[in-house]
Amino acid sequence: MAKIFDVIIVGGGPAGIFAALELTQTEGLSILLIEKGKDISQRRCPVRDTGSACVECQPCNLVCGLGGAGAFSDGKLVLTSEVGGHLGEYLGKEHTAGLIKYVDELYLKFGASRKVFGGDGAIDEISQRASQAGLRLIPMPVRHMGTENGFAVLKDMRDYLMPCLELKLSLMATKVLVDDGIVKGVETEDGERFLCRYLVLAPGREGADWLSNEADRLKLTMRHNPIDVGVRVEVPVKVMKELTDVLYEVKLEYMSQSFNDRIRTFCMCPAGKVIMESTGGTEPVVTVNGHSYAGRKSRNTNFALLVSTDFTKPFHEPIAYGKYLARLANLLGGGVLVQRLGDLLEGRRSTPERIKKGLVKPTLKSAVPGDLSFALPFRHLTGLIEMLLAMDKLTPGVASPDTLLYGIEVKFYSFRPQLSSCMETEIHNMFAVGDGAGVSRGLVQASASGLVAAVEIMRRMEQG
């Protein structure tokens, strides 16, 4: 006989963890958390730890496992509803702001840094200069934990939860069980079935593909978010220092003059390192990302520069499109490509010799010098170059010939099932939360979305 739980949570990232933190406040609940990756303390990434080439671990230890992608992220808590997800659309700005405050308090309880960036009076002056350069600055409060401290905070949350629920690691949920429009449980890769009254799907961005396939099988209404494709930019720390000292996370938006595409900065990592990661799934590709540590500083600052594309009918495969572009870069370089901006502008590939002579030394040593114009569409490259030139007016040096561009960075926030204001899907008692459900784009809103589902579950259980 299959064991019946009150609640099953699929995915052990911030969304799943925060759902569990809230649910365990109610005594007597039987909770099962299923995570296809390893325990947080057992996750090892050869690329991150040794600087070697990606060996495409299955699943990817960098983004899978207890703690999710957040365990090895930059550890930034963006304390506003303006960016980082869509919760404001479901709950309204006031309710979302209250949730974000509650999430922040929980992170502080488990050891997050108390310093908050983005409250300095210099913001108005920076915003004015950005406008003069054709850019829009989105100021916001940011609490930066650092990659190593974010890991420690999530590990402490794991330790707190361990006595309160049943945990199954290195086990993938493959199928959602539904009967007459009501969720019944999940089936795992080994054929075992776990039944439940309530199901919270929090598969993380690496699990977006799986959730999309399950939603299609269950005939759920799907909404496609824009897909974000671009590069990771690396410059000397001093180039961005004036802005990052005040804002830390410098959020800039630009509308392409050539194609009217929205381009934005994302995941600013002052004195950080560029890293690579695998998308996982059935057809994994290697993409690029960035980290920033609280205790270890590099000489470079890196950030993503992303072009948002909203596809229209009949095209409906944005995830496949993003993977296709990343796969082109993998094909050309065996992993991540790196190119000097000067070489790109002159229409030539970068070589190891030219990279070595450049003023910016790459922090991702395994990146292969090459030509990004073979992997990125002309439309995307044009917009990215336009924005770099605009940023150079705001902070000179961004568009230096020695600036490094790594590719490809892809954000697969391209699928969102139809959800109610409490994150419930069209299947009764089944909730979808976090980055993998297209609801959030970062630690804070992912965590908050897990809380929303948990609060609704507890409300229904109290009502009987």
Q: What does this protein structure show overall?
A:
- By secondary structure, this protein is of the alpha+beta class.
- The protein has two domains: 4-119 and 141-223 and 417-463, FAD/NAD(P)-binding domain (3-Layer(bba) Sandwich); 227-411, no CATH class.
- The chain is built from 13 helices and 22 strands.
- The protein has helices spanning 14-23, 46-50, 87-91, 93-109, 123-132, 147-161, 208-217, 237-247, 318-333, 341-345, 352-357, 378-394, 443-463; strands at residues 4-10, 31-35, 76-78, 116-117, 136-137, 142-144, 166-169, 173-179, 182-188, 193-201, 222-223, 227-236, 252-255, 262-269, 273-278, 286-291, 300-309, 337-340, 368-369, 404-411, 416-417, 430-432.
- The strands form five sheets. Strands 5-13-14-17-12-20-18-19 form an eight-stranded mixed β-sheet.
- Strand 15 (273-278) and strand 16 form a beta hairpin.
- The longest helix has 21 residues, at 443-463.
- The chain is globular.
- It starts with a strand and ends with a helix.
- The model has no long low-confidence stretch (mean pLDDT 92).
Short description:
This protein is an alpha+beta fold. 32% of the residues lie in helices and 25% in strands. A hairpin with a 2-residue loop joins strand 8 and strand 9.
Q: Roughly how many Å apart are the termini? A: 24 Å
Structural class: alpha+beta
Number of helices: 13
CATH architecture of the largest domain: 3-Layer(bba) Sandwich
| Average pLDDT | 92
Which helices and strands occur, and which strands form pairs?
Blueprint: E1 4-10, H1 14-23, E2 31-35, H2 46-50, E3 76-78, H3 87-91, H4 93-109, E4 116-117, H5 123-132, E5 136-137, E6 142-144, H6 147-161, E7 166-169, E8 173-179, E9 182-188, E10 193-201, H7 208-217, E11 222-223, E12 227-236, H8 237-247, E13 252-255, E14 262-269, E15 273-278, E16 286-291, E17 300-309, H9 318-333, E18 337-340, H10 341-345, H11 352-357, E19 368-369, H12 378-394, E20 404-411, E21 416-417, E22 430-432, H13 443-463
Parallel strand pairs: 1-2, 1-10, 2-7, 10-22, 18-19
Antiparallel strand pairs: 3-6, 4-6, 5-13, 8-9, 9-10, 11-21, 12-17, 12-20, 13-14, 14-17, 15-16, 18-20
Helix pairs in contact: 1-6, 1-13, 4-13
